[in-house]
Amino acid sequence: MKGAKGRKDRYTILSDVALAILKQYFGMYKLQKWLFPGSKSERHISTRTVQTIFKQAKEKADIKKDVSVHCLRHSFATHLLESGVDLRYIQELLGHKSSKTTEIYTHVSNKNLRKIKSPLDNLKL
Predict the structure, then answer these.
(1) Where are the domains of the chain?
(2) Which residues contact residue 35 at a Cβ distance below 8 angstroms, ignoring those fewer than 6 apart?
(3) What would the pLDDT profile of 44-85 be if each residue is shown by its tens digit?
(4) By three-state DSSP, how is residue 78 classified?
(5) Going by C-beta distance under 8 Å and a sequence separation of 6 or more, which residues neighbour residue 98?
(6) HSE toward the beta carbon, residue 15, CA cutoff 13 A
């Protein structure tokens, strides 16, 4: 994303699955300027419209938890961390200046803590 929060460019990953779906969508709608055009063809979709679409999808999926579009960012970071991605890479993907900001995800994710074995367990007695 060019010129995101703090006028800072952001980079992220795009899965092969998502790319295939986006290509199909692009071809189906014969888009000209924007991948997600707004109500006026010269404008992109608005933040408010994204929030509305997210809310409708949440209701359709019968999700009761109070979540927002921003929760997707937290979920993305948490899943990366649980997959073993180094915190410094996650920091870069999220565009955090300080590693302290990214470290909030370390307390959220303790799923893998249970998998850690003590070095003493490897001793042959």
Answers:
(1) 1-45, 46-110
(2) 22, 26
(3) 999 999 999 999 999 999 999 999 999 998 889 888 988 889
(4) helix
(5) none
(6) 5
